[in-house]
Amino acid sequence: MPKLEPELAGLVRASFEQVVPSAIRKFDSQVSDIPDILKLTLGEPDFNAPEHVKQATIAAINNNASHYGPAAGLPELRQAIATYLAKLNHVTYDPDTEILTTIGATEAISAAMGTILGAGDEVLIPTPIFPLYMAVAQLNGATPVLINTADDNYVLTPERLTAALAAHPFAKMVVLNYPTNPTGVTYTKSELQVLADVIRQHKLLVLADEIYCELAYDHEHVSMAEFLPERTIVINGVSKSFAMTGYRIGYLAAPAALTAQIAKLHGALVTAAPTPMMAAAVEALTNGDADIAEMKQAYRTRRDYLVQALNTLGFETAAPNGAFYVFAKIPDTVNQDDYAYALQLAEKAHLAVIPGSFFGPGGEGYLRLSYAASQTVLESAVTRLSKFIAEPLN
């Protein structure tokens, strides 16, 4: 096996040394070999892609959709995205100049942040949050400025944003992910309005990752682009709402001047999204409303069951009004080391969840449980957790 010559190791960009592999994936892999392990770890819907979407994919393949598509995405897909966002976010985008199809929302995030952030830049990131944003910032030599929202019911308040901007006046971007992974908390229209009023006073872009927007349960999702279309980059895709994670189709929408620049990095990274999968995404976005409604109702039922069960067992939870995660506080009567607790839970009860500290400040002493699993699996998980709590820990 070839080994890199020691004197060449230093040729790797220094910023890469700051970034560690995904702790979520690492922990999931670490516990996966435990016999009879039941996992509520990853944001992977247990539903399959809708049948009509599968048939659209097959039809595209049979029609020899095996060639490169346009770098920005098939024209019919960009039109479907524009139509979809006009209905969902009440913002009109030009499909030719303001929409970019990407390899999942992950690439959209990476391309957008990589276009805007460089060495010495700062990006404001409310936490707890999915750690990808921190990693991408660091890979580009930028500094993530983490804003702990735990004391504000896990939403970024205008007061905290104002304080962060006073301390970091040259920050280029603020990240908003909502409904939020890991807490499931989302923002109301009034909460977004007051944040927009603060942002408008600064030279600041908004990265609005709204990948879970269709899974908002208790009130209608509102996009930050509705208030700040001229400075918001909307991230979305078909992975979560349509149970199409493996299709790897995401997209972003932004003012044309920004989209044109982001498209340069996108083209250099991936050339274009796979053509048959783009055809599938057209079908999902055009004819998938009933699929979303069915899955959303199932998730809502699961959420209600899991939150009630956890509360009964002594776990306080954030108010999960969207996505498919519950963020649960470990009872104060036991060790608050969330990593150690999650590891013991996996080893002793064969139940895998994600330690809350993986999601940044405010996550310590919490566990993230994904309810993108069947009701039967969730009931088994609660049974295992109940037995684990009832037995004294060594």
Automatic annotation (TrEMBL):
Domain of life: Bacteria
Residues of the Aminotransferase class I/classII large domain: 36-385
Pfam families registered for this protein in UniProt: Aminotran_1_2
Name listed for the protein in its UniProt record: Aminotransferase
InterPro entries in UniProt: Aminotransferase_I/II_large, AspAT/PAT-like, NHTrfase_class1_PyrdxlP-BS, PyrdxlP-dep_Trfase, PyrdxlP-dep_Trfase_major, PyrdxlP-dep_Trfase_small
Keywords assigned by UniProt, alphabetized: Aminotransferase, Pyridoxal phosphate, Transferase
Family: Belongs to the class-I pyridoxal-phosphate-dependent aminotransferase family.
